[in-house]
Amino acid sequence: MKISIQGIPGSFHHQVALNCFGEDAEILGFRTFEEAAKCVSKGECEFGILAIENSIAGAILPNYELIDRYNLTIKDEYYLPISHNLMCLKGQQIDDITEVRSHPMALLQCKKFFEAYPNIKLIDDVDTASVARRIKDEKLKNVAAIASTTAAKIYRLEILAGDIQTVKNNFTRFIILQKPILDLGLVQPNKASIKVTVNNEKGILAKLLSLISSSGLDLSKIQSIPVIDKPWEYAFFIDLQFENYQAYQSVIQDIKSDFGDVKIFGEYENRK
Ligand SMILES: O=C(O)C(=O)C[C@]1(C(=O)O)C=C[C@@H](O)C=C1
């Protein structure tokens, strides 16, 4: 089975692929989230994995847009505890480090740690593990990576400081994507991710939220993103949790008839 991710062995996406699909899966690593999503939509792999939000740094907004644009379906979700570590070539001390490179989401999660090191420049890079690999391959001095302990082991780097994320209890939520398929109805879903493009009317969002609340559904996430061809208009990405599938379906019907367009990205099992 082929799985697309952004990143290389030692990255958090790679860890999620192993945890969800096991050692036998063929993991195809790409430089960008877009290439990983495109691989699924072209049918060149069965599943793709995308980080969608982190408990410290928040949502990865461009990834919502990718699911939408490539017409992908959310099959499942996975919450990975994230511990970040500062690592460099053996023998280097923290005072030797002038530059730290990592994935932008990883840098955001560790911002507080670097307040004590104002001379260190924080630079966005492709993914956590590929920086670790580059430091090793190019024997880069004065540069450190932020990555997992697995990456430190694979690329034989020394950890200068462990668990450096701002809050120890740190999670990233990943979604498992596939091409839209016919629902076989094997598992009764209790969570759904939808996009609602509301008509721009006064008070409409408040009414939408009241409908969801009065129907007994639990709104676990709401995220607005711009409608790109209509400046200053917004669509809402909404995650709903429910015990009663029929109640959920009836809310979807009510939203369609009274609020605007609904696109269902996926109905799946809540893994939180
Ligand atoms: O760079 C990596 O190792 C990734 O898997 C990317 C990523 C992300 O996209 O948020 C995954 C989990 C962590 O939140 C930090 C980075």
From TrEMBL:
EC numbers for this chain: 4.2.1.51
Gene3D superfamilies xrefs:
3.30.70.260, Periplasmic binding protein-like II (3.40.190.10)
The protein's UniProt keywords, in alphabetical order, are: Amino-acid biosynthesis, Aromatic amino acid biosynthesis, Lyase, Phenylalanine biosynthesis
Q: Which InterPro entries match?
A: ACT-like_dom_sf, ACT_dom, Preph_deHydtase
Known pathway = Amino-acid biosynthesis; L-phenylalanine biosynthesis; phenylpyruvate from prephenate: step 1/1
Q: Which residues does the UniProt record annotate as the domain Prephenate dehydratase?
A: 2-179
Reaction catalysed? prephenate + H(+) = 3-phenylpyruvate + CO2 + H2O
A Pfam match: PDT
- Coiled-coil regions listed: none
Q: Where is the ACT domain?
A: 193-269
Q: Superkingdom of the source? A: Bacteria
Name of this protein: prephenate dehydratase
Q: Which organism is it from?
A: Belliella aquatica
